[in-house]
Design a protein that fits this description.
605 residues, Enzyme I, Chain A, domain 2, TIM Barrel, 8-stranded mixed beta sheet, 8-stranded parallel beta sheet, disordered N terminus
Length: 605
């Protein structure tokens, strides 16, 4: 402990975006802002400045192409997609033309012109409340900064600093760019055991990277680089978002033991992955499915014991592009996912984005009427998003449905409609689906005419009175993330109000229980596909309600399976009834803790 005795102990908190524990030495990327030259030029120097911009773009392009070629086989293929997105931003013709116009109109050097362009972009994105959209603004900033580095004759500064890092490093940085996440997977000399970023949220590239590569990560830790020193010992718990900087000697021993237990537990999970998720009394089986955001690491998903894909977030195929995927590209993507599952069920959620989440140029290319872009919605979370957006853009919706139905030919596939809040939306969506079936039939294209159609129950209006909604569909999936958010009127990605986001709130538990009760009465299959489904502490509650399918991040499956195999159905039923009688979130939490503790003690005897 001699190395850390001069450093004070402190605790920090952020948003955990993956799973697992990390313990290592901090590598703080406290890079000073670039010192950009600012000077006026004469009119005859304008072509030279434009040429410097073009040269920088060409040079960064070359770097990206080299990275694309040497991306390791073990890296998820979607990371290549991220790099291609970065390349698209570097080559954005609109950006180039606007910077060139600034150079010519203001007669200033290219570095200064790029900085002014970035200020304009940031002023637009900073006023947007949607976390996903804000992170796309960060992507543009990363691209501009990389061009600035090139113009100044510098390579990527993060790469230069990380190369001297020690083993078992926890990277502490403001944010990670698209290129950074690719490069970090490529630099095998770096034993990356954790990531902490000041910016970012659940949809950031850091989140996707950490979940795909099973790296513990905590994002949204404001001021992390000023509070953590290079070489500090760091403990990162990405399950809870807790960070301990320079733990005491006693804590260090406890942490090392936790990490050892984690490694042993992972080994145990792998050995048990083929075992059934069945209660100890053999009275209740649960299908454990995986939530998938990308066609990456599917072998690892099966290795974790997933019995299929309970939620495929198709929006990742549409993200950050200046040309939306056409029917063939979507078909190939869905087909690859379905074939990788080898006959296991796959549920594909239709596009869950809003008009504000697509660049206006992209929307225009998709023939979206200008009046439907709503780029300046004051509250995008309550605006034209998910099913509302796709029904307002039937060509986009029907193209996706065509691709899904074709890929589902002779396969076990379901279609899931997000953010349903009215019967009308279900009927309209089904009408378009039937229209697509007739088109494919007429064209003689093979498709699956019997694909079940279900809805996400994530809006309180549906969960309060679900019967009429469920009669219209084949199945339902409870999206607990948005259900909690909308029920409690809290943005869980906002650190200022994140503590109010509480899955243990009695009203949330009631809405879940009510939906499952009605679904069982109607004989409609219902699953849990939000984060609550992947938390072992809620497994007894879901079993007690009679839930037969949980879908979660693949890394959570072994933990939940192990918990289920310790339970008795009758105990869970009594526990669920008890939990639903509680009136406060602290009471709910305490009841859960007591049940788990008692059950663990009973199980260990």
């Amino acid at each position: 402990m001699a190395e850390t005795k001069e450093h004070s102990r402190k605790e920090l908190r952020g948003i955990g975006v993956s799973s697992g524990l990390g313990f290592g030495k901090a590598r703080v990327m406290a890079m000073a802002p670039l010192q950009l030259p600012q000077y006026s030029i004469t009119k005859d120097k304008v072509p030279a400045e434009k040429a410097r911009l073009a040269k920088a773009i060409t040079s960064v392009n070359k770097e990206i192409n080299q990275m694309l070629k040497r991306t390791p086989k073990r890296a998820p293929k979607e990371l290549k997609s991220f790099l291609e997105m970065f390349k698209m931003l570097i080559n954005d013709q609109t950006m180039k033309e606007e910077v060139e116009n600034i150079i010519a109109d203001r007669l200033i050097n290219v570095e200064w012109a790029l900085a002014l362009h970035l200020e304009e972009i940031k002023s637009v994105f900073e006023n947007m409340t949607d976390s996903y959209l804000a992170e796309r603004g960060d992507d543009i900033e990363h691209a501009v900064n990389r061009l600035q580095e090139e113009l100044l004759g510098k390579g990527s500064r993060l790469q230069a600093e990380v190369k001297s890092a020690l083993d078992e490093v926890i990277l502490v940085t403001n944010d990670l760019s698209l290129a950074d996440v690719i490069w970090l997977t490529e630099f095998e000399a770096l034993d990356l055991v954790g990531i902490i970023t000041e910016k970012g949220g659940p949809t950031s590239h850091t989140a996707v990277l950490s979940q795909t590569l099973f790296i513990p990560a905590v994002v949204g830790v404001a001021g992390a680089r000023s509070m953590i020193d290079d070489g500090d010992l760091l403990y990162v718990d990405s399950n809870t978002g807790q960070i301990i900087c320079n733990p005491t000697p006693e804590e260090t021993e406890e942490i090392k033991e936790k990490v050892r237990e984690q490694e042993n537990l992972y080994s145990e999970f792998y050995r048990a992955r083929r075992r059934v998720a069945e209660t100890k009394d053999r009275r209740h089986k649960v299908k454990l499915m995986a939530n998938v955001a990308m066609i990456a690491g599917l072998d690892e998903i099966l290795h974790q014991g997933a019995q299929g894909v309970g939620l495929y977030r198709s929006e990742y195929l549409f993200m950050g592009r200046n040309k939306l995927p056409d029917e063939e590209e979507q078909y190939e993507n869905y087909k690859e996912l379905i074939e990788a599952m080898g006959g296991r069920p796959v549920t594909i959620r239709t596009l869950d984005v809003g008009g504000d989440k697509l660049l206006s140029r992209e929307a225009k290319e998709a023939n979206v009427p200008a009046g439907l872009l709503n780029e300046e919605e004051e509250n995008p979370a309550l605006g034209l998003r998910a099913i509302r957006f796709t029904l307002a853009n039937p060509t986009l919706f029907m193209t996706q449905i065509r691709a899904i139905l074709r890929a589902a030919y002779k396969e076990n596939v379901k279609i899931l409609l997000p953010m349903i809040s009215s019967i009308f939306e279900i009927k309209e969506a089904k009408r378009y689906i039937e229209t697509v079936k007739k088109q494919l039939e007429t064209e003689g294209i093979p498709y699956n005419p019997d694909v079940p159609v279900g809805i996400m129950v994530e809006v309180p209006a549906v969960a309060i009175k679900p019967e009429a909604f469920l009669r219209e569909v084949d199945f339902a999936s409870l999206g607990t993330n948005d259900l909690v958010q909308y029920s409690l009127a809290v943005d869980r990605g906002n650190p200022s109000v994140a503590p109010i986001y509480n899955e243990c709130h009695p009203s949330v538990l009631y809405l879940i229980a009510n939906t499952i009760k009605v679904a069982k009465k109607l004989g409609k299959p219902v699953s849990i596909c939000g984060e609550m489904g992947g938390k072992r502490k809620f497994a007894p509650f879901f079993i007690g309600l009679g839930c037969e399918e949980l879908s979660m991040a693949a890394m959570q499956i072994p933990k939940v399976k192990k918990q289920i195999r310790k339970l008795n159905k009758e105990d869970c039923e009594r526990f669920a009834r008890l939990l639903l009688r509680k009136e406060t979130a602290p009471d709910v939490k305490e009841t859960i803790e007591k049940f788990l503790k008692k059950h663990e003690e009973t199980h260990d005897k």
